[in-house]
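Worked Example 4.2. Consider the chain below.
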Amino acid sequence: MITRIEIDGFKTFQGFAVDLQPFTALVGPNASGKSNLFDAFRFISLLAKYDIRHAMQGLRGEPEELFRRTPNGTTQSMSFAVEVLLHRSGTDAFGMAYDVPAQRLRYELELGILVGDDGMPRRVQVVRELCRPISKGEDRAKSYLKNAQVNYTRVSHFIRVNEEKQAIEVRQDGRQKHGRPLTLSLKEASRTALSTISTAEFPHLYALREALGNISFLEINPQAARMDNDRFDEPKLKSDASNLAAVLARLKEETSTKIRPDGVLSDIAADLSSLIPSVSRLESLSNVSQRQHAYALQFTDDLSFSSRVISDGTLRLLALLTLLNDPERQGTLCFEEPENGVHEGRIPALVQFLRQSAMVSTDPDEPSFQILIATHSPKVMAALDDVEIVAADTVSEVDRETTKRAVRTRMRTGVQPSEDLYDPEHHLVRSEIEHLLQRSVDAA
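Applying the procedure from the previous section yields the following structure tokens:
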């Protein structure tokens, strides 16, 4: 899970930093930067797996539009930093087990535009990359990690730029790995050093790559979620939920018992029933001859409806609850507008489901799970605890030299019960958030 993110030079972010809880709600009007923050998470995730060109193609907009625009022109670099809690052990893609003595890491990355002799941008490349352990004394998240028995270890940097600033050094930290660091040239660095890590021979970096590379995004497409699935479809829920039938089939197969023949599907149905009372059962249907998976919902009047006729709102809730009840869920989930399709009276129950699903694990065998939501709903905001709220808005600033205005995204934590003794740049009161959301409603 990610406990802090810092951004500078990406889209609307300048000198930006925000600390994150296991369950965090980005609350603010439209065009306040919530989606841009999710884009930053998506970019970091893609950069952990692919080269820069591929990662930029996975985002909204052209590559040059990803760099912050100011009255003085487009910035020539962007930088990110994330602080991460790693699971203490794991297995790589080749079955090699590994342990992580230092669970708290800080990862920093700077990208720059290489400009040709004609003044035109040629490519984007890595300028700087760093990964180091976080000590217990400097840990900003230790207030809610205190029961997690986090491992802190004093070791040197895992990634850093060499003294000549010509290459990135990757320290070998695996078992019996104490040789010279792996050196990667910065002359034409078209991908991050982290993205080159493919095995547990570098246990900390492999665990970090998995944590960042597996940030998930739920952007449910009800029409896609209605589809039957081939038996070889992806077993982990896709962002658009197009493989929902296959996931439900896997969950039933893995969790079914004689006492509970539907396994965890019974829990999904029970949770869905608390939001839509007429739901009584969730069925996973497999057609052996056609090698396909499907599903249906039964209701209290004994009527059964296939996925083809279930409403969009019900499908959104079903996909979300399927993910939340998956025993294999882990990492960080980003979910925009969870209130879509949900009756206002049931929003508090939905927020409670999200809150209870997000957790810092105290079990060495169970990874932590983080949920980040983005919303402009006053009803969702009313159901949130103060510590869960990150309020998003934009700040317009005037450049002293050009007198032109530039807009940057601001996100504030630390909701105060009153306006006494609070810093308006970093804290706010609930009435201010309500005013921001009301402006969004009025604009709509």
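Residues 221-329 form one domain. The chain has eleven helices and 24 strands. Compare this with Example 4.1 before moving on.
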